Amino acid sequence: MHFALPPRKSSFPPPYARVSARNSLEQRRRQIQYIAYLVLGVLTLYLLLSFFSSGDVSTKHGPISEDSTVAIVTVLDESSMSNEYMSMIRKNRDDYAARHGYTTFYTNESTYAHLTQPSPSSWSLIPALRHALTKNPDIDYVWSLSPYAFIMNPSLSLYDHVFSNLTSLMLKDIPVVPPDSVIHTFSHLKPSQVYLILTQDMDNVAHTSFILRNTEAIPVPTGRPKDSWAQYFLDAWFDPLYRAYAFQKAENHALEHIIQWHPTLLAKLAVVDQRLLNSYDYDSKQSENELMTDAPPRRHDSKWQPGDLIINFKGCAEAKERNCEKEMKRYYTMWEETVAGLDGNGAAGKS
Asked: Which parts pass through the membrane (predicted)?
């Protein structure tokens, strides 16, 4: 017998209706998602708090100490520099280091050729700095100084000249790369949070004299390897991708790229006036192309003046009409007279 309509359902369903297996799996999947989001949120919050508070967790990350140790790193090119020129450079660095309790580290470009080729040899600066950190693992600061730069004020220590006044010396909320980078330096950075001190010239970040901090980025328990922000920075800078990219100004443009677009690097960067660490031996001028535009004229104070710490003969090795050794000899004589006056004996490093 067949009914015309299906049997009517009961109006009283059982009190514990069975949930289908499919609905049960869907509900369980959502619960797992909620737990995962919660764990991810807690971890993110923890990392952010650790990052922003790491600068002042311990005394090693507090105000910069007057007793901070410094290594002055200079990469020479023995294939193109005369022995007399390199001797002047060494005497200059050695005298300054002895006066302030610093150490010096000299190396040669060719030492790192197997790491940099086929890129320009100027990239050797980065493995050389890594080498210096390996040789001096407990050093607090590394001062990278071009072999075409000369220390002209030997009485000025880095602490008196830079570290003790870093709060007022930092150029805040300015374009990282001049003249008009959209990325600006931080406006609220404290000296204890600074791990990289750079200058700018008229058009670029000036990497021929800069200071790199070698203390831990985040304090680690005793017994664990040092977590060095400096090593991370150098590894990021020396990335094979950047060396293969063929930047117009090689490692200089690569440096400009990473400090702008890597927040972990930008967050530790301080930019100071050029003449504080990297005075040039010439006036900076705008390019012909820029002068032909409607943009307002720019001025930049870069030329060395008596009393400045450094004079940098930038570009002397590339320009055919210039001679690095000849240019430096004039200032070497001035430096000898300054050192003789400080020592009070009139016999400072005559060559």
From this structure: 34-52
